[in-house]
Amino acid sequence: MTMKTNSANRPNEGKQNTPNNPNNPNPQNNPGQQEQSGGMGGLGDRAKDMAAAMSHQAEGAANFIGQKADSTTAAVGEGLRSMGNTLREKTPKSGMLGDASAAVADTLESSGRYIQEEGFKGMTGDLTNMIRKNPLPAVLLGVGIGFLLARVTSTRS
Q1: pLDDT 10s digits, 116-146
Q2: Which residues contact 102 (CB under 8 A, 6 or more apart)?
Q3: Rounded CA gap, 50 and 67, in Å?
Q4: 113, 114, 126, 133: least buried by Cβ within 10 Å?
Q5: What pTM does this model have?
Q6: What is the domain partition of the chain in residue ranges?
């Protein structure tokens, strides 16, 4: 006894899995069904990928800026040391002017050496530690600088 099956009960029987077939079990061959099933998830994944790419670009830019700041501080440090050496060579060696110029030259050279050795990150770390150890003078200095900047930038008639 053979059973006949009714093709009306099986919608995919005799049809190929074409991209336009809504009953296609393979979503890769059915773009419409793929959009329906993963539309919002796809947008979320794309947003995450874009955010990760932007984060990576921002990190690269921050590294570039940090390297430029370090190279700039090294150049400034070298300039201060050179200025100290020049001052030492061009000014008198004795007398009150000689003593004063030697003190200024020593200060310039030691400042240049500090800037070269510490770099931008080291200087900001030292400044942060100094503010932590002396918070009240730091606040007063900030208020004073703010007051002076307000006086300089305000226009009076």
Answers
A1: 888 888 888 999 999 999 999 999 999 999 9
A2: 88, 91, 93
A3: 26
A4: 133
A5: 0.50
A6: 74-133
